[in-house]
Amino acid sequence: MKIWTSEHVFDHPWETVTTAAMQKYPNPMNPSVVGVDVLDRHVDPSGKLHSHRLLSTEWGIPSIVKSISFTNLVSVDERLVYKPHPHEPDKTILTQEAIISVKGVSLSSHLEGLMANTISSNANKGREALEWVINRLNAEIEEFTASARGTMRNSMAAAAFVEK
Predict the structure, then answer these.
(1) pLDDT of 35-74, one tens digit each?
(2) Rounded to two decimals, what is the model's pTM?
(3) What secondary structure letter does DSSP report for 30?
(4) How many CB atoms lie within 10 A of CB 147?
(5) In sequence order, what DSSP letters do the residues of 52-117 get, joined into one string?
(6) Within 10 Å of residue 102's Cβ, how many Cβ atoms?
(7) 3-state secondary structure of 45
(8) What is the helix (H) or strand (E) element at residue 144, kind and residue range?
């Protein structure tokens, strides 16, 4: 068993980051992920949201696992925790953990190490993807705001014209 961990601070409030996290796929940084199935989602008594999701990839399972037919011998349990920064409200801390187990084969620790490296690389891409989603959401908000302002100005101008 190998445990991989990472921590990252986003320069965005918790609400923005968690909204983006729920809309993370598909994205250009992870083109192999074609969908996400939510297996379970609930809020526990302390108010924490738990979401058990399964990513669907274009090839089904990681290629290293597929190429050596270890699908029933490999387990990866990944946990992502998003928390508001305790001292800076406009920042969010992401803590990631993956527990990797390869059982019943020789060189299992070597394979676990290879998978941890892949997870680390994919985590970097995932953080880039989250920033991409946040930028896309911010652009949509700006576009909507500009459109609403234009509509209000036109309505006000039409109302002023009617009064004269």
Answers:
(1) 788 888 888 898 788 888 877 776 555 554 455 565 568 8
(2) 0.76
(3) -
(4) 10
(5) EEEEEETTSS-HHHHHTT-TTTEEEEEEEEEEE-SS-TT-EEEEEEEEEEE-SSTTHHHHHHHHHH
(6) 23
(7) coil
(8) helix 108-163
